[in-house]
Amino acid sequence: MLSRYRARSGTVFQSHNLFPRKTVLENLTEGPVVVQGRPRAEAVADAEVLFDEPTSALDPELVSEVLAVIKDLARQGRTMVIVTHQIRLAEKVADQVLFVDGGHVVEKGSPTVVIGSPAHARTRQFLSRILDPG
Q1: Among 17-31, 39-53, 109-123, which range has the highest average pLDDT?
Q2: How far, rounded to the nearest angstrom, does the alpha carbon of residue 108 sit from its chain's CA centroid?
Q3: What is the value of pTM for the model shown?
Q4: Are 92 and 67 in contact (CB under 8 A)?
Q5: E strands within the chain?
Q6: Rounded to an integer, what distance in angstroms lies between the CA atom of residue 56 and that of residue 63?
Q7: pLDDT at 72 over 80
Q8: Contacts of 97 (CB under 8 A, 6+ apart)
Q9: Cβ(50)–Cβ(70) under 8 Å?
Q10: Cβ contact 109:116 at 8 Å
Q11: For residue 13, how far is the Cα from the chain centroid?
């Protein structure tokens, strides 16, 4: 299953490896359209629901703006996949949370359950380090 997923996905680098004259969306859809031969409309639809660490390296003011956009998209009924280490972000905007460790889904459920009352020891261990680093 993982190899099938990898064959259908690509990587967009965060620095110095993007096509400078293309938009973010064009950079995201270049691989699926050119390499995989997927229809542009399909690649665009997939690219519009994926966020990989959307608040990484942002100052608090910009984080608030990103959260506002994500919440607005959710109100519009958009389904979004967000990869984040920012637990509070997941807690605020997610309907479902998946805790992944070593490429395997360890736990999934509502933010209240997974973050507030995790069932698995690995999830509890991770959250204790992130939420209470002292």
Answers
A1: 109-123
A2: 15
A3: 0.63
A4: yes
A5: 50-52, 81-83, 97-101, 104-109
A6: 9
A7: yes
A8: 90, 108, 109, 110, 111, 114, 115
A9: no
A10: no
A11: 15
